[in-house]
């Protein structure tokens, strides 16, 4: 099970990541918690789920998504094999 520190981001960490003041960090957390509450999720005052914060700030849900990484690797392999096939056809 993930601990509270890993699962949630607090005001001090938001301040560090975004280089902002405490008041603005609280406002951001409050805004994100309001969005989550509207979707029916439980929220904790002064803390925001880390994954939700990362999604909102960085534009993606997880730092590491194994399924997505495998899909990207497969696309690269497919592109390389298509390139080699076309190159071989041109040389023949």
From TrEMBL:
It comes from the Bacteria. This is DNA-binding protein. The lineage of its organism: Bacteria, Bacillati, Bacillota, Clostridia, Lachnospirales.
């Amino acid at each position: 099970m993930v601990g509270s520190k890993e699962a949630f981001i607090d005001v001090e960490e938001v301040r560090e990541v975004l280089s902002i003041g405490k008041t603005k960090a609280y406002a951001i957390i409050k805004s994100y918690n309001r969005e989550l509450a509207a979707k029916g999720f439980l929220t904790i005052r002064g803390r925001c789920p880390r994954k939700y914060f990362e999604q909102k700030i960085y534009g993606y849900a997880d730092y590491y998504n194994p399924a997505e990484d495998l899909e990207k690797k497969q696309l690269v392999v497919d592109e390389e094999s298509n390139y080699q096939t076309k190159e071989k056809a041109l040389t023949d």
